[in-house]
Amino acid sequence: MSIPDAAVAVIAAALDDYRLTTPHDQQTPHGAAERAAEYLLSSGYRIAPDHTPEHTMPHLVDVDPYADPTGQLPTYRWRQAPSGLATRRQLRDMGLRPGGHDPVAVIECRRGQRVAYLYRIDQAAPKYPMTLAKEAALDRAMAARQTCPHCQRRYHHCLPLKTLGSCLECHDGTPADPGSYTAPQPQQLAA
Ligand SMILES: [Zn+2]
């Protein structure tokens, strides 16, 4: 794809005008883009979506940073790949992930300028919902700040671990409200 020099000159002139005629604190990327589009249209250029196949199915254009581009994988052209294969992004849309399996084929996009790696759908593993993974990570972080290393109780509030190194009851005998913590699990008591 190449943009004619004259069109680039029109865009440059539009942006220059925009910069000079719009107060600095009112300039926005959107305003600059509108100005450039306006100048292109009034200069006889046509701005329209490209309906060639690779643009009508943009979700297939998927550069995969995890795959090895040097591998000798079978390469398919656009829309000619066998069924049962999907790109990493398509797997994600199906709620799946490659699950540790390597890609089994390559699909060429944009006349070979970009490639996407194809994985077997039947080997894919379910993807954990991001919210659950985040919740689990947050809970682990909170547990570390709420659990007394001496009595192993997990309190409902954060403990002064940096200063006292334990809950108040372990520190100076101040009895803890039994409703303010969860008793340790049996395997933690044994440890
Ligand atoms: Zn304690």
Describe the protein.
There is one protein chain. The protein is α+β, with helices and mostly antiparallel strands. It folds into three domains: 5-42; 53-126, no CATH class; 130-190, no CATH class. Helices cover 36% and strands 13% of the residues. It has seven helices and eight strands, in the order αααββαββββαβαβα. The chain has helices spanning 5-21, 29-42, 53-56, 88-93, 130-146, 168-172, 186-190; strands at 75-76, 85-87, 96-97, 105-109, 114-120, 125-126, 154-155, 181-182. The strands form three sheets. The protein has a four-stranded mixed β-sheet. It has a two-stranded antiparallel sheet with strand order 3-6. Strand 4 (105-109) and strand 5 (114-120) form a beta hairpin. Helix 1 packs across helix 2. The model is unreliable at 56-62 (pLDDT under 50). The structure holds zinc ion (ZN). Zinc ion binds next to helix 6.
Quick structural overview:
The chain contains seven helices and eight strands; from the N terminus they run αααββαββββαβαβα. The chain has 191 residues and is α+β, with helices and mostly antiparallel strands. The chain has three domains: 38 residues; 74 residues, no CATH class; 61 residues, no CATH class.
Helix and strand arrangement:
Layout: H1 5-21, H2 29-42, H3 53-56, E1 75-76, E2 85-87, H4 88-93, E3 96-97, E4 105-109, E5 114-120, E6 125-126, H5 130-146, E7 154-155, H6 168-172, E8 181-182, H7 186-190
Parallel strand pairs: 1-4
Antiparallel strand pairs: 2-5, 3-6, 4-5, 7-8
Helix pairs in contact: 1-2
The protein binds zinc ion (ZN).
The site of zinc ion has 8 residues, from helix 6.
